[in-house]
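[recover] target loaded
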């Protein structure tokens, strides 16, 4: 299962590029990475908002009322991010897509560092590695859209 997921993400990353001009094929690749990021973010947000104790339990943690409130606050932020990502997946304007990619790259890179810290310090269990890998692949996808020649403004 883990190999199949990693292979799927790697294929998606290799296909993803943002051109200096708009083509249907390039929009589809941008749409693929933003759709994936949006869906995963919305799922995370839903779990954190609706079932914070369950979602923290999946990560091997128990919590108190303050932890539940903080988890729900994180879920609210993730919901806003997920909606923003989902609504911008069909953008046809290359400059706006590039600006979105910059913001999302920063966001997902910070998430990768937080995920790694959580796993290495024992704050979350081994399921944290799956979250780390997913956030890493998504951040690489947005990074490729910016730092490859095709993502740069011509």
């Amino acid at each position: 299962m883990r190999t199949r997921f990693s292979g799927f993400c790697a294929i998606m990353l290799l296909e993803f590029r943002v051109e200096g001009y708009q083509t249907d094929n390039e929009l589809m690749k941008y749409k693929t990475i933003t759709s994936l990021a949006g869906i995963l973010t919305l799922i995370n947000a839903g779990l954190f908002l609706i079932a914070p104790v369950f979602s923290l339990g999946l990560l091997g943690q128990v919590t108190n009322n303050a932890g539940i409130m903080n988890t729900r606050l994180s879920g609210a932020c993730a919901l806003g991010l997920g909606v923003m990502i989902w609504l911008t997946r069909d953008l046809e304007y290359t400059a706006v897509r590039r600006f979105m990619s910059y913001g999302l790259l920063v966001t997902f890179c910070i998430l990768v560092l937080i995920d790694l810290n959580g796993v290495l310090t024992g704050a979350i269990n081994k399921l944290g590695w799956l979250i780390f890998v997913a956030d890493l692949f998504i951040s690489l996808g947005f990074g490729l859209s910016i730092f490859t020649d095709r993502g740069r403004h011509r």
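[recover] notes: The two ends are 41 Å apart (CA to CA).
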